[in-house]
């Protein structure tokens, strides 16, 4: 093996499972036979559309939906086929009909999608919920295209069940570096603060996010799931639209990001995923969350711009 390959392998922090891990974690998964009305946390291995009616009604404070986009995609043996916009809209509507009875009257809902599925999402969401906003987040990397614009963004639709809902704006402020600091006439910094590491301003969040990094091989939260969302992204949704002790539900759990972040932030959580390997990744990540509850890009009660938090940590350590 070359030195370059060996060094790259050493820097790869992606999570992997051993056979011993699988054997140890498998008994933790909740089967249909083990469902109960007092279920507080856990990972159910099942098709969420088939078992939603077995769950208690009115228990969810926050629903995070990251359904398969309208693309042909293989999820570790489970294949989702691209269909017409009309057919995808019907499929999504059928899913929402299954999950809606589980929500509290004060619940909030976030539905993830790309440019193609967003039309269907809005149509369905407007039928069942109050649509509050559309968040667009920039993908740090995007695949090039010779005959079209490069796709480098995705959407998250924010909805509520009613006009009474939770939104903690102070919990999701973003710390931005001040490039051209403005001062009052007496020289006092205006709306920003001077620190040993630079000048920063804590700002209210907008619906356009440019600070999200898609999990990749050097991040310990990374798994081999093809559409994994970052913990930082999900943390924004959970902090904004739930309180400690609330119940967060994700019926398309994937490799477990929603459950992991909910655990780190002191929420109850329930996730459903039909692929056993992804369920086991979830349980392993939940274990690791007990050891290290940090969320990349979140510190001091604010979200930092992409890569800036790490820069500050390096500067502080060099000063010390």
TrEMBL record:
Cross-referenced PROSITE patterns: N6_MTASE
Top-level taxon of origin: Bacteria
SUPFAM superfamilies: S-adenosyl-L-methionine-dependent methyltransferases
Zinc-finger among keywords: no
Keywords assigned: Methyltransferase, Transferase
Cited Pfam families: N6_N4_Mtase
EC number(s) reported in the record: 2.1.1.-
InterPro entries listed in its UniProt record: DNA_methylase_N4/N6, DNA_methylase_N6_adenine_CS, RM_Methyltransferase, SAM-dependent_MTases_sf
Matches recorded under Gene3D superfamilies: Vaccinia Virus protein VP39
Molecular functions (GO terms): DNA binding; N-methyltransferase activity; site-specific DNA-methyltransferase (adenine-specific) activity
GO cellular component, one term: cytoplasm
Segments forming domain DNA methylase N-4/N-6: 60-280
GO biological process: methylation
This protein's record includes keyword Amino-acid biosynthesis: no
Protein family: Belongs to the N(4)/N(6)-methyltransferase family.
Protein name: Methyltransferase
Organism of provenance: Leptolyngbya boryana NIES-2135
